[in-house]
């Protein structure tokens, strides 16, 4: 590994390029490319890469970028792309199709607020609109976590027990455009870690076949059930991928979720991405003040880690969820999943806090106010909106 001071976008691009090059002894790599702020730098860097076997295809829209990925993956190539916000929305038809085709595409989603009104700052509504698509989803809290997760994503997506595409999400600008020191993967180690990409149902002149033809209801039911079974196998496959990552890179990446100080916690706060890093500082300070508080960083959103989350919360009686997203008429999207997960824990007071929409700051002071509010509650209410101070 070589330590470099890079932006999140550059860390993502270099890791994608190394993963693509690692498939040169097989059927190579391909990326569909179309720019949109704040992910454009990823595509720009990939366009400058010279692959031994592969290419980056510049197209006229995000819809076509995913179409290129689908075609390349159906040909057996290791395939990847990146997008944000309304670009992801323009891809929506092909994103669903890629999942249902069981294509192991890896896409970087640089979270940005959906418009209108137009806003270039972070909000997770863009990637979370695909919560019902047949895609795995991971949310990264740092540049290093991002680079590591991209490699894990290829390893899990291409596993023949899974064969589903993966979204790897990071916060727009907060991660994409800031710089941190990152251990970027050496090509030799990426080669050792990632096996040759094998798409079993790839198109072949020797065995002509039809992809995506018309089926009867029973076949569709079986198809969806097979996807569910693949999702249920993800935790075990990911655990193996993490173990082997540690052997190759001599560092253990974060897995499904991260729990801190939850063993004896009476109050637990749940967050993801860079909000979790801020939350960690608040929890540490409160712990030093004698407060029994813990935190959980939710990294894997699909499949949703229900059993792992229940275990992480432990005996805590109060749980707050920080949601940088919003489902109109309902509330935070992570909160909805966690509420369903805790349906057998009526002893837990679960409260949702909608924070940081449209890139609003989620500060230590705001998180402190949320903890104070939670600790004085005797019952939960509808989601509470916390707006950043002007």
Describe the structure.
This protein has helices at residues 8-21, 40-47, 62-74, 85-90, 92-100, 125-128, 143-157, 187-193, 217-249, 273-288, 306-313, 333-341, 364-375, and strands at residues 2-7, 29-33, 54-58, 78-83, 106-111, 136-139, 166-171, 179-184, 257-260, 267-271, 293-298, 300-302, 318-323, 349-355, 384-386. The strands form 3 sheets. The protein has a 7-stranded mixed β-sheet. It has a 6-stranded mixed β-sheet with strand order 9-11-10-13-14-15, with helices on both faces. Helices cover 39% and strands 20% of the residues. The protein has 2 domains: 2-249, 3-Layer(aba) Sandwich (Rossmann fold); 257-386, Rossmann fold. The chain is globular and about 70 Å long. The chain is built from 13 helices and 15 strands. By secondary structure, it is of the alpha/beta class.
Main attributes?
390 residues, alpha/beta, Rossmann fold, 2 domains, seven-stranded mixed beta sheet, six-stranded mixed beta sheet, 39% helix, 20% strand
What's the gist of this structure?
39% of the residues lie in helices and 20% in strands. The protein contains 13 helices and 15 strands. Strand 13, helix 12 and strand 14 form a beta-alpha-beta unit.
Question: What is the total number of structural domains?
Answer: 2
> Strand order of the main beta sheet, please?
3-2-4-5-7-6-12
Our measurement of the CA-to-CA distance between the termini, rounded to an integer number of angstroms, reads 43 Å
User: Largest sheet, described in full?
Assistant: 7 strands, mixed
Q: Using only CA atoms, what is the Rg?
A: 21 Å
Helix content: 25-40%
Strand content: 15-25%
Low-pLDDT ranges: none
CATH classification, class level of the largest domain: Alpha Beta
- How much is the average pLDDT? 96
